[in-house]
């Protein structure tokens, strides 16, 4: 018998899923339209693929998908921070937005795990 998730769990679940979708979309837009690398780096948009593959599992609330997401998000945050510090102009701005989004999604994911354990 499974228990009904609390309102807090549902709120953090929605925030995590929204952050995941937004980060995947931003990764694709970042490398294709917003700030592509000048030397044909459009293939870097494939970095959104692992995030996109996790969307169905996170939407269902699958623990394994959320664990994988917890492992991946720090890498996306690190890339955003490094590129925000090393690049300039709109490239740095988009990178900083991606880093902030990855960190916020990670915080929501951890809060979701915590609420689930407390409930």
Explain how this protein is built.
With 119 residues, the protein is an all-alpha fold. It has one domain. It has 4 helices and no strands. It has helices at residues 7-34, 49-60, 63-86, 89-118. The longest helix has 30 residues, at 89-118. The radius of gyration is 15 Å and the shape is elongated. The model has no long low-confidence stretch (mean pLDDT 92).
Layout of secondary structure:
Elements: H1 7-34, H2 49-60, H3 63-86, H4 89-118
Helix pairs in contact: 1-2, 1-4, 2-3, 3-4
List keywords for this structure.
single chain, mainly alpha, 4 helices
Q: Can I get a quick summary?
A:
By secondary structure, the chain is mostly helical. The chain has 4 helices and no strands.
Gross morphology is elongated
Give the biggest beta sheet: none
What number of domains?
1
Quantity of strands, as a count:
0
* Beta-strand fraction estimate: under 5%
| H and E order | HHHH
Low-confidence stretches: none
Helix percent reads: over 70%
- In DSSP terms, counting alpha (H) and pi (I) runs of 4 or more, how many helices? 4
Overall SS class: mainly alpha
* pLDDT averaged over residues: 92
Computed CA radius of gyration, to the nearest angstrom: 15 Å
Q: How far do the termini sit from each other?
A: 15 Å
């Amino acid at each position: 018998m499974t228990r009904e998730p609390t309102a807090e769990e549902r709120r953090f679940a929605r925030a995590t899923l929204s952050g995941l979708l937004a980060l995947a979309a931003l990764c694709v837009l970042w490398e294709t339209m917003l700030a592509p690398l000048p030397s044909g780096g459009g293939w870097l948009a494939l970095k959104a693929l692992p995030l996109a593959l996790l969307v169905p599992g996170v939407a269902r609330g699958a623990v394994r998908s959320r664990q994988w997401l917890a492992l991946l998000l720090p890498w996306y945050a690190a890339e955003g921070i490094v590129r925000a510090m090393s690049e300039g102009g709109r490239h740095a701005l988009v990178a900083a937005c991606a880093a902030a989004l990855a960190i916020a999604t990670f915080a929501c994911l951890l809060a979701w795990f915590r609420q689930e354990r407390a409930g």
